[in-house]
Specification:
Layout lengths: L1 E6 L9 H9 L2 E7 L1 H4 L6 H21 L4 E4 L2 H12 L1 E7 L5 H17 L2 E5 L14 H10 L41 H15 L3 H4 L3 H7 L4 H6 L4 H16 L10 H23 L10 H6 L8 H7 L6 H13 L4 H14 L4 H11 L5 H11 L13 H8 L4 H6 L19 H6 L15 H16 L4 H12 L30
Helix pairs in contact: 4-5, 11-12, 12-18, 17-18
Length: 517
């Protein structure tokens, strides 16, 4: 019997049931497939590949130590399996379920068809608190909690290898057409980095987590930053949660003055880890959310945005004329990361103030995020763009956000250096200065820095009018009730063996934003 364990977004050997089950049965081929067609998509990028490649190399080292080297193949997944079936008399494939973008959804269906036709057993295991199929959202919390309460699956003590299995080399990004995208050193998606992040967070880095997570400069340090190793699957959500619970129990026995981080910081991290699965469940239950608005009346009101739209390009490159928005986008381009509130703001700004279609702006954002997780990304893009019908539209004021989150202008000065000569009182609104004062600060609007694309007050008013018009249409409430039944949070519902935090009804979907726990 020859088995394949197919690694996808689960690049680890601990808490990996397919690998553990295969190790109990006999020889195994650990397999990772590099799919060039996937890396040619509009929502994938070099920074994502580099994060995944680091995790693959780490995984390969560990699998070799356990006795079975990782086999890498380049190509289309079903064809790779067909080739291995012919050369090694494949009998079964074990893999985790994946809730990815449309490409991976169709790819997995093609692999299932191949397995049926070739009479090969294909076993897919639940990877985290996402349930397939989910017949009723009312039951999700209990199912999620039961899964998270289960013990971690141990790492196999030894793997039996299959001999004479050829392996390709892991391609360099350029071989896949992934050229420089402005992020020189993206955060790695490795297991080692995930454990270091947890060590430093609980060791004191998360001291001001609850306050700093909203701030673009402080948040880069204070946030857990686990989103990248979670997105590659180098660590599992269940593993991260159990670490949180263990540390919280230990810290709870200490005097408050002896805790490196407060218990409330750990509770906040736990909450965000729970919402990770809540959002992915939405895309699992309705894969079309990558393309279609959750609420059909908002879908009917959509106006497409072309890929070369000048406003889309200005927004995506940090050239809108709004300093705080531009600083956020330039920071994201350079680092591959942005804190959760700023992710929500830039998406809101694109959809409301610039009236860009959420799918076009969401695609550009996706490839800028090193931690791109489709199951979180697309429901969040829709939520921040007012497409769900069940969430209160949040039209962020980019000027107020700048004053609130960057009051001294440090973040803007770092990422929009052409504004460095402006006084603090005008750093977020350079258009309020007269031309002579601007010139003395080394700034000419429309030349050294763009004129703002819109008047943000007028643009916000127009956005509210658009939203109100849709919400007043016949059948809006009935459709919204259907969306809530299928996707809405069930406040207070059990999600683990721990007591849930009390929240106002309907507040749940505002907590987890764009995969930053």
């Amino acid at each position: 019997m020859v088995q394949i364990v197919w690694f996808k977004r689960d690049l680890r050997t601990v808490d990996h049931r397919p690998l553990f089950e295969a190790a109990q049965q006999g020889p195994v081929i650990p397999l990772y497939i590099v799919e060039p067609a996937y890396w040619a998509l509009g929502d994938t990028s070099r920074r994502q590949y580099l994060a995944i490649a680091a995790a693959i190399e780490e995984l390969a080292t560990r699998l070799r130590e356990l006795g079975a080297p990782l086999v890498i193949r380049i190509g289309e997944a079903a064809e790779v399996f067909r080739s291995l079936c012919e050369s090694h008399h494949l009998t079964r494939i074990l893999a985790h379920e994946e809730t990815g973008n449309d490409f991976t959804h169709r790819r997995d269906k093609a692999v299932r068809r191949f397995a049926r036709q070739a009479d090969i057993e294909l076993i897919e295991y639940q990877q985290f608190g996402v349930v397939r199929p989910l017949l009723n959202r009312d039951d999700w919390g209990k199912l999620h909690g039961a899964y998270m309460d289960m013990p971690l699956v141990p790492e196999p003590t030894r793997l039996m290898r299959v001999t004479d299995v050829a392996s390709d080399s892991l391609p360099v990004p350029e071989a896949l057409g992934l050229l420089d995208d402005g992020c020189a050193r993206p955060q790695p998606g490795t297991r080692a980095s995930g454990h270091r992040l947890m060590d430093t967070f609980f060791g004191g880095r998360g001291l001001n987590y609850r306050k700093a997570m909203s701030q673009p400069l402080e948040g880069a340090k204070a946030c857990s930053r686990l989103s990248v190793p979670l997105s590659t699957g180098a660590i599992s959500v269940r593993e991260a949660l159990k670490r949180c619970y263990a540390v919280r129990a230990e810290f709870g026995r200490r005097d408050a003055r002896d805790r490196p981080v407060p218990l409330t910081a750990i509770d906040s991290l736990v909450a965000r880890l729970h919402w990770h699965c809540h959002f992915i469940q939405k895309l699992e239950s309705e894969p079309a959310l990558e393309w279609h608005s959750q609420h059909r009346l908002f879908e009917a009101a959509r106006r497409p945005t072309s890929g070369d739209d000048p406003m889309l390009e200005a927004w995506a490159t940090g050239m809108t004329g709004f300093p705080f928005v531009d600083a956020c986008m330039r920071s994201l381009i350079a680092t591959g990361w942005l804190n959760f509130r700023m992710r929500a703001m830039v998406q809101s700004f694109a959809s409301y103030h610039l009236a860009l279609d959420w799918q076009a702006s969401g695609t550009r954002l996706a490839r800028l995020f090193t931690d791109y997780e489709p199951g979180i990304h697309w429901p969040q893009v829709q939520m921040q763009s007012g497409q769900t019908g069940i969430n209160t539209p949040r039209i962020y004021n980019p000027i107020k956000q700048g004053h609130d989150q960057d009051p001294d202008g440090q973040f803007v000065r770092r990422w929009v250096p052409e504004l460095g000569g402006l006084p603090v009182s005008f750093i977020h609104e350079p258009w309020r200065l007269d031309p002579e004062s601007l010139k003395s600060a080394g700034l000419v609007l429309g030349d050294t820095y763009p004129v703002r694309l819109v008047d943000h007050v007028d643009a916000a008013r127009a956005a509210r009018d658009r939203m109100t018009a849709v919400r007043r249409e016949n059948g809006f409430r009935t459709e919204a009730q259907g969306v809530n039944t299928k996707h809405g949070s069930r406040a207070g519902q059990r999600r683990s063996g721990r007591r849930p935090t009390k929240r106002k009804s309907g507040a749940g979907d505002q907590l987890q934003l764009f995969h930053e726990p």
